[in-house]
Amino acid sequence: MAVKDSREVVIEASPEAILDVIADVESTPSWSPQYQSAEVLEAYDDGRPHKVKMKIKAAGLTDEQIVEYTWADNEVSWTLVKAGQLRSQDAKYTLTPDGDKTKLRFDLSIDLAVPLPGFVVKRTIKGAMETATDGLRKQVLKVNKG
């Protein structure tokens, strides 16, 4: 059964600056504790990641995943291609410019292939959502300061 969640945060940066941080997937393990490693397998002509292999550790489980990114104006999403612990994963960042800030919405849907107690799943999703929003915000502000 798929678990879904969404979260919003305001980031004091342009959508372009935020998308640049998201596109730097190989740096994600430095600011996202769930990521052990991330490697771009295929890139689009503009250099943005298309297929990415990552090693994730969450809820006491380690999983290797391959995801496929889709980029649009002020939006990026990814879909699970292959994993050991998940049946499916779909995630999407939607960025709405607001003056010199950007409202960011993150939507996540995962379907676990392994049974876990509900409270463990909820705690894991909560941590993932916080990292995907607040953690991303901190990294964007850090990168923008240089």
TrEMBL record:
<dbReference type="InterPro" id="IPR023393">
    <property type="entry name" value="START-like_dom_sf"/>
</dbReference>
<protein>
    <submittedName>
        <fullName>Cyclase</fullName>
    </submittedName>
</protein>
<dbReference type="InterPro" id="IPR019587">
    <property type="entry name" value="Polyketide_cyclase/dehydratase"/>
</dbReference>
<dbReference type="Pfam" id="PF10604">
    <property type="entry name" value="Polyketide_cyc2"/>
</dbReference>
